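Researcher: Let's run the pair from yesterday's discussion. Sequence first, then tokens, for each.
Model: Starting with the first of the pair.
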Amino acid sequence: MESRYEKFSGLIASINKSIQKIKSIEMEEFDLKGSGVQCLFFLFKEKGGVSSAKLCALCQEDKAAISRTLKELEAAGYVCVDREESRKYKNPICLTESGRRVGEAIMRKIDEVFSVGSAGISQAERESLYASLDKIANNLKEILEKIEKSEKGTKR
């Protein structure tokens, strides 16, 4: 009998793997990796530009990963970054015209994929699924915080 752990972790891993492969294939024409897609997605949604720190939070990535991705996006001509050193992670990052076009394409592709991916699921089922996943994510974060707090206490 398959355990809840096997079922849950297997489904989450499978969904994540599929999303990553779809991103990779669909974004080849723009020479984008998954992290670049995430950044452009949030920059497009935010419209007025965001700081690197906020982009880290939105993408759920660390500063080093976002910094590398932004350098790639800037080199490709998709974003412009104000490099005022005194405000390093607070400087606004904005999409260029080319970045806005790619952002629009990303949004269209995401809508298409999720439309097909959620076929046969009612709005009520989708809301229930997301509410359940949100609760699980929050519960797991609480467990992780307790573990990390406990580890810090034992290292002293």
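Model: Moving on to the second of the pair.
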Amino acid sequence: MSKLTSGPGWSLSSDEPAPKPEKKVNPDSPKPKIRLERRTGKYVTVIAGLHTYGLDRLNGIAKELKALCGAGGTVKNGAIEVQGDQVERVRDWFSKRES
């Protein structure tokens, strides 16, 4: 249902909220490859395949993942490394971002 609004001139506005635009998934976007490595007796979760994002964006993602996992980490050679076995948390984080 439409109604007339007040103010200078006439305009029509809707009572219903505007529909949310659908988030389009780009099939060419890089997919993260998450793996667990063992280094000197300790585990490291490595997220590779995002090198096309650029260093600034990778550092931002790494910062969010480190805060989520409560662990240290770094960005090396286009891959994000998070200390510890954090594979499930990282997968959940990426799946929530995609939807």
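Researcher: Give me one sentence on the second I can quote.
Model: Residues 64 and 93 are 10 Å apart (CA to CA).
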